[in-house]
Specification:
The complex is a heterodimer of chains A (about 650) and B (about 350).
Chain A (H helix, E strand, L loop, with lengths): L1 E5 H4 L3 E3 L3 H11 L2 E8 L2 E7 L10 H14 L4 E3 L16 E4 L4 E10 L7 H9 L7 H13 L4 E4 L7 E6 L5 E3 L5 E3 L5 E4 L5 E4 L3 E2 L11 E9 L1 H11 L4 H6 L8 H15 L3 E2 L4 E3 L8 E5 H8 L5 H10 L3 E5 L2 E5 L11 H12 L19 H18 L3 E2 L5 E2 L12 E2 L10 E2 L4 H10 L6 E13 L2 E14 L5 H15 L4 E5 L7 E5 L2 E8 L4 E7 H6 L16 E8 L6 H9 L5 E10 L2 E8 L8 H19 L5
Parallel strand pairs in A: 6-9, 21-25
Antiparallel strand pairs in A: 1-4, 2-5, 3-4, 7-15, 7-16, 7-17, 8-15, 9-12, 10-11, 12-13, 13-14, 18-20, 19-20, 22-24, 23-24, 25-26, 26-30, 27-28, 28-29, 29-30, 31-33, 32-33
Helix pairs in contact in A: 2-3, 4-5, 5-8, 9-11, 10-11, 12-14
Chain B lengths: L1 H17 L3 H12 L4 H8 L8 H37 L16 H14 L4 E3 L4 E3 H4 L31 E3 L5 H9 L4 E10 L10 E11 L4 H16 L5 E6 L4 E10 L22 E10 L1 H6 L8 E8 H7 L16 H4 L3
Parallel strand pairs in B: 1-4
Antiparallel strand pairs in B: 2-3, 4-5, 5-9, 6-7, 7-8, 8-9
Helix pairs in contact in B: 1-2, 1-4, 2-4, 5-8, 5-10
Classes of the chains: A alpha+beta (about 650), B alpha+beta (about 350).
Chain lengths: ~650, ~350
């Protein structure tokens, strides 16, 4: 959450000679980030990002306290000027009976005043507008001004619009409706904090926004100034459900210090006196069933130095904490620290105190030191997995493939398989990103479709797919998928890519088998393991998908040296007439096992029913003669006739 | 017989030397050395002459064969060098070359490689943990209170499966920090982890994609302090962005670290000066700094949940966006992050 404040407003609570640029710098380094420092006439505006744990800094007073501590530690003179107002309004009656459950509202401070509606004084207008808040009239402006200055949201009712003998704060019921002061109607889901008047009419949506039926206007004469410290969780629920992200809601859902309620009320009274001719006409009401207890934290001096990495002197620790309103008592080797009310939700353990000391001391003053190497470093299974992933990606890149990253979440159309098997999001962002995919192929085909006007495309992706398991997290399987688009693309182009890839990775024993489901293409196996498939999609598109982890589990960097042959090889081409349904690989393997002199067999050419095999003969012991080759040739022919009813020209 | 062999030799040599090109030379070779070539036929004839003369004739035949082969070889290399001479003289070197195919790795992959290498060199080991995770690993064990906004339906993707009685609902990892607990369960300190993975959050606009990548560092050991976090941060920033870039940490708030930091790097466009050379304010950064991401000292509750004694060990962790650091690199300013996952070849082929 961001807050914008004028430099002159900050200096009402901060005495320093530091320039705005220095304030911005040191606040950023030690506290909250000043994202922009903007010049405005004779003044400056700080635009500050406040972290959610520091709602106390969504105020001029809180920021002044932090700035004073930050500047002082960096050697720049600075002092936080507290403004304590006294409650001088006791003794009168309070005309309204207020009932509230303490688990809904922890504190209520209220007062009734007679007022005159008019424009706000220039100072209030300017400060609010620099803060990004539109000035409306003095009655509304004061509530916003106090919220900005003190940090507690403030509400004001037109007293005469309330039927105010009794006001009851309760949880809303489902279906109750109301109209907020910006004239929007809401139907409640139940469990919201609302206030009803004696007529049973809802007059406030507490902690979030006032309602139209009780809002102050140009005819207002009497106001009920009302501060409620509400339960943060209920506020968050209502605010998100109704989509009302008012400043009050954003603050209240973070937990506002109830101790601020009374000073804020008193500041409101003071401002109404000046800006609205205000006269207090009731006593000040303060319902405060459970004031929070301040806790103490023990911090060891040794631990402070151990976590920060540099010894911070004890007196410096003490001084820093006191500037931030912590109470510090010395003990041997440790500090006993009492947390101020506005930090109770945020500062709970030793480490929280260490953070306070370290940040104000200044992280920029600490050295940068690399941690020592891990002396027990072990090789892990992860290392090899990432190695092969890198190798495969590089290889595919040099085969001309472009890598894509598609979303793991897909639409029903892009889900591969029966949709009831899909792991499904409970709260998808859109229908095209609802299911966790089971294959990468549909996403790749979509990419091909998106890149129209290209005749040739080669793409691939390595990513996980997800498969449901009973009472367990899904199985996440890493796949390698690719798609080729090219006029009349050949099956053998896809196969060749995978064969070359397998060869490069040292994966041996891969088999391609015709798929039996009639879809065309081939399934890829190794021994008993199914590794994936090649699948023609159309005349121009073919794709492949591989179980990447399984496939690369067979890859190896192991190299085997075979002595280079002393005797030259002889090669011969053999034309064989074969029926078309006979697999080339079977024939080649048959030839290969005919005789130990055969060292390699490959298909040279295929024309109609004639397949020409290129056969290489070599011996490690002697020169091979034509005679040797002739004998082996006859053996081959005999076998092929027996096994495959082959013919020869 | 000897005379015939010598004739063959002379005849062959003169034809070889006259061959104007490699094709003719190949013809000559076949004419003499082919299966029914003149020399081949003549050698077969040797079996017909008397036994006692055969060794001498055989030797001569071999000599003739060697001479013809050598001459062919030398003529071939002469012809080839003439060809290459022609190439040297006649080509337009400005014509495009004929290259091997070259594809492209995705920018994210390139960043991942670079980041992994940097952390590897200072002793971090890369790991991979589930993308679909139990709430306990993603939030609970990381000290997120039960009603924390990040656990709302608006920020995190929930999976429509039965919650685990112990670990809660199933979610898509909204950050790589879930790997912290997994790593502490896998190994005891010392820990030097780099978890680089896909993450998912319920948002999509110019600076957010529902799927993105983070890299998480986790160091747990005896005596690990804020100064060590600063050391690693500086090393990474100088290695990845360049030596001129500065880094800083400043206070921030996260549930799973204490103290927590926001990490800034000086802007590469204005060099941290917040102003451009022409005096205009820099629009990319905030007062000269770019936010890189979060970091902090591991919260003692997180160490406890990972089974590590916070009285003995301390640690730091950081989780930064891959897309984010990529965008912060000089020269890559993409105005809509969703372009990264659009898979337009026009985009991918630029890298």
């Amino acid at each position: 959450m961001n807050i914008k404040i004028l430099d002159s407003w900050l200096r009402e609570y901060l005495k320093t000679s530091a320039k705005p640029a220095d304030i911005a710098k040191h606040l950023s380094l030690s506290s909250v980030s000043v994202e922009r420092l903007e010049r405005k006439a004779e003044d400056y505006i700080y635009d500050i990002e406040v972290t959610t744990n520091r709602p106390d800094l969504m105020s001029v007073v809180g920021l002044a306290r932090e700035t004073a501590a930050a500047l002082a530690e960096q050697g720049i003179e600075a002092e936080f000027k507290k403004n304590s107002l006294e409650n001088r309004n006791q003794g009168k009656d309070f005309p309204v009976k207020i009932e509230a459950e303490s688990n809904l509202v922890n504190r209520i401070c209220a007062v009734v005043m007679d007022v005159a509606v008019k424009d706000s004084p220039k100072k209030i207008k300017d400060r609010l507008e620099a803060s990004g808040i539109r000035s409306l009239n003095n009655l509304i402006d004061v509530t916003n001004y106090v919220m900005r200055e003190i940090g507690h949201p403030v509400h004001v009712f037109d007293f005469d619009k309330l039927n105010a003998e009794k006001l009851t704060i309760r949880k809303s019921k489902k279906g109750e409706s109301l109209v907020t002061l910006d004239k929007k109607q809401y139907s409640l889901l139940g469990g919201d904090i609302v206030m009803e008047d004696s007529n049973g009419r809802i007059v406030d949506l507490l902690g979030i926004m006032g309602l139209e039926n009780s809002v102050v206007g140009e005819n207002t004469k009497k106001i009920l100034l009302f501060l409620d410290n509400t339960d943060p969780t209920l506020i968050r629920k209502t605010s998100m459900e109704l989509g009302i992200r008012s400043e009050a809601a954003v603050l209240n859902e973070k937990g506002v210090d109830p101790e601020l309620a009374m000073p804020a009320l008193l500041r409101g009274i003071e401002l109404y006196k000046g800006a609205a001719d205000g006269k207090v006409s009731s006593s000040v009401l303060d319902i405060y069933p459970n004031p929070p207890k301040k806790h103490e934290i023990k911090v060891s001096l040794e631990k402070i130095s151990r976590v920060i990495g540099e010894a911070i002197p004890e007196d410096k620790c003490r001084r820093i904490l006191r500037k931030l309103d912590f109470e510090v008592t010395d003990r041997t080797d440790k500090l006993l620290v009492k947390v101020p009310s506005f930090r109770l939700l945020d500062v709970k353990i030793e480490e929280d105190i260490i953070e306070e000391i370290a940040r104000v001391y200044g992280y920029q003053r600490l050295p940068s030191i690399l941690p020592p190497l891990n002396e027990n470093l072990k090789f892990t299974r992860f290392e090899t997995a990432f190695y092969w992933e890198r190798r495969v990606k590089e290889a595919l890149k040099y085969f001309g493939f472009t890598e894509v990253y598609t979303y793991s979440l897909v639409s029903e159309d892009l889900y591969d398989g029966p949709i009831e098997n899909a792991l499904t999001l409970k709260n998808p962002l859109s229908s095209d990103m609802t299911f966790l995919r089971s294959s990468l192929i549909p996403s790749l085909l979509e990419v091909l479709g998106k890149n129209k006007g290209r005749e040739e495309i080669k793409i691939f992706e390595i990513a996980c797919v997800y498969k449901k398991r009973q009472k367990d997290l899904p199985e996440e399987k890493l796949l390698l998928s690719g798609a080729l688009k090219k006029p009349n693309v050949s099956f053998f182009e896809a196969k060749g890519i995978l064969e070359t890839l397998f060869e490069d990775l040292g994966i041996k024993g891969i088999k391609f088998k015709k798929r039996l489901d009639g879809a065309g293409g081939a399934e890829i196996t190794r021994g008993k393991d199914y590794l994936g498939y090649i699948e023609p999609v159309s005349a121009d598109i073919i794709d492949f998908e591989l179980d990447f982890e399984k496939a690369t589990s067979f890859s190896t960097l192991k190299k085997v040296y075979n002595p280079i042959g002393k005797f030259p090889p002889i090669s011969e081409d053999l034309a064989v007439i074969l029926k078309p349904d006979i697999s080339t690989i079977d024939v080649a393997e048959e030839i290969k096992t005919t005789d130990p002199l055969i060292v390699n067999v490959s298909l040279l050419d295929r024309f109609e029913d004639i397949r020409t095999f290129h056969i290489v003969f070599q011996s490690t012991e002697r020169n091979i003669t034509k005679g040797d080759v002739g004998k082996v040739r006859e053996k081959i022919k005999k076998r092929l006739i027996e096994m495959f009813q082959a013919n020869f020209k | 017989m000897e005379e015939e062999l010598l004739n063959i030799k002379n005849n062959a040599v003169s034809l070889i030397l006259d061959a104007p090109d490699l094709e003719t030379l190949e013809g000559v070779k076949l004419q003499f050395l082919g299966r029914s070539g003149k020399l081949t036929v003549a050698i077969k004839e040797i079996t017909k002459i008397p036994q006692e003369r055969r060794p001498a004739v055989g030797m001569l035949a071999n000599e003739v064969k060697t001479t013809i082969e050598n001459t062919i070889e030398s003529q071939a290399s002469n012809l080839k060098s003439q060809v290459s001479k022609k190439i040297r003289e006649d080509i337009d070197v400005t014509n495009p070359g004929i290259g091997p195919p070259l594809g492209h790795l995705h920018l994210i992959t390139q960043a991942i490689e670079e980041i992994s290498e940097i952390f590897k060199s200072i002793g971090f080991s890369r790991v991979r943990y589930p993308e679909v995770e139990w709430d306990w690993y993603a939030f609970g064990a990381l000290n997120f209170p039960p009603n924390h906004p990040a656990r709302d339906d608006w920020e995190t993707f929930f999976i429509n499966e039965e919650p685990d009685p112990k670990y809660g609902p199933m979610v898509l990892t909204p950050h790589t920090s879930s790997g912290q607990i997994r790593e502490m369960q896998r190994i005891k300190p010392p820990i030097r982890m780099l978890n680089l993975a896909k993450c998912y959050r319920r948002q999509s606009d110019v600076s957010h994609t529902p799927m993105f990548h983070q890299f998480e560092g986790l160091v747990v050991d005896r005596g690990i302090s804020i100064t060590h976090l600063k050391g690693v941060l500086d090393f990474f920033v100088k290695s990845y962005f360049g030596e001129k870039r500065q880094s800083r940490i400043r206070p921030y708030h996260f549930e799973f670290t204490e103290p927590s930091f926001e990490v800034d790097v000086t802007c590469g466009v204005c060099n941290g000066r917040a102003r451009l050379p022409d005096g205009q304010g820099c629009r990319l950064c905030k007062e000269g700094w770019l936010e890189m991401g979060g970091a902090g000292m591991v919260h003692p509750n997180v160490l406890k949940n990972g089974g590590i004694d916070p009285n003995t060990y301390t640690g730091f962790a950081f989780g930064w966006g891959v897309e984010r650091v990529l965008m912060m690199k000089e020269g890559i300013e993409i105005d809509d992050l969703r372009l990264l996952y659009s898979n337009k070849l026009e985009f991918l082929e630029q890298f």
